[in-house]
Amino acid sequence: MNKETKQYLGLGGYQGCDFNGQIADATLCYLTYTVMTLEKRFTEYQTKGELFSDMEDDLMALTLWKRVLAYIERILRILGETLGLMPQHLMATIRGNDKELSKILVMAEALEKWDEVYGHTA
């Protein structure tokens, strides 16, 4: 079980210094493993390796999306520190600005089109 979670789900790959983050990372790995094992138990048509292969693209997309969100959060935090604002206040300002909100919606639509073309979900 530990070999599979390390190899396929990235257990132990968390690079942060925050203990809560390490606990959350391990918890998410084992929850994912549990859900995948339950799916295997219900179907019994696939080996765990086949199940991991089928879900690998989805897990990769989720991992990449998690990284993107972390970078966005970091950018907002740095921008907030530079401007003397909290990230929540920055987001409220962006939401209140129709021009900026329309740019965000255009980016979201582009991501949806990319998702349709390449078949990845985040």
Brief description of this entry?
The chain is an all-alpha fold.
Please provide a written account of the structure:
- The protein is mainly alpha-helical and 122 residues long.
- The chain folds into 2 domains: 1-45; 55-122, no CATH class.
- Helix content is 82%, strand content 0%.
- The longest helix is centred in the middle third of the chain and has 36 residues, at 48-83.
- It starts with a helix and ends with a helix.
Which secondary structure elements does this structure contain, and how are they paired or packed?
Elements: H1 2-9, H2 19-43, H3 48-83, H4 87-96, H5 98-118
**How far is the N terminus from the C terminus?**
26 Å
What structural category arises from helix and sheet content?
mainly alpha
> What string, H for helix and E for strand, traces the elements in order?
HHHHH
Rough outline: flat
- Domain module count: 2
Task: Work out the radius of gyration.
Answer: 19 Å
Low-confidence segments, given as residue ranges, are none
Helix content: over 70%
**Average pLDDT over all residues:** 74
**Beta fraction:** under 5%
| Number of distinct beta strands | 0
Main beta sheet strand tally, sense and closure? none
The number of distinct helices, counting runs of at least 4 residues, comes to: 5
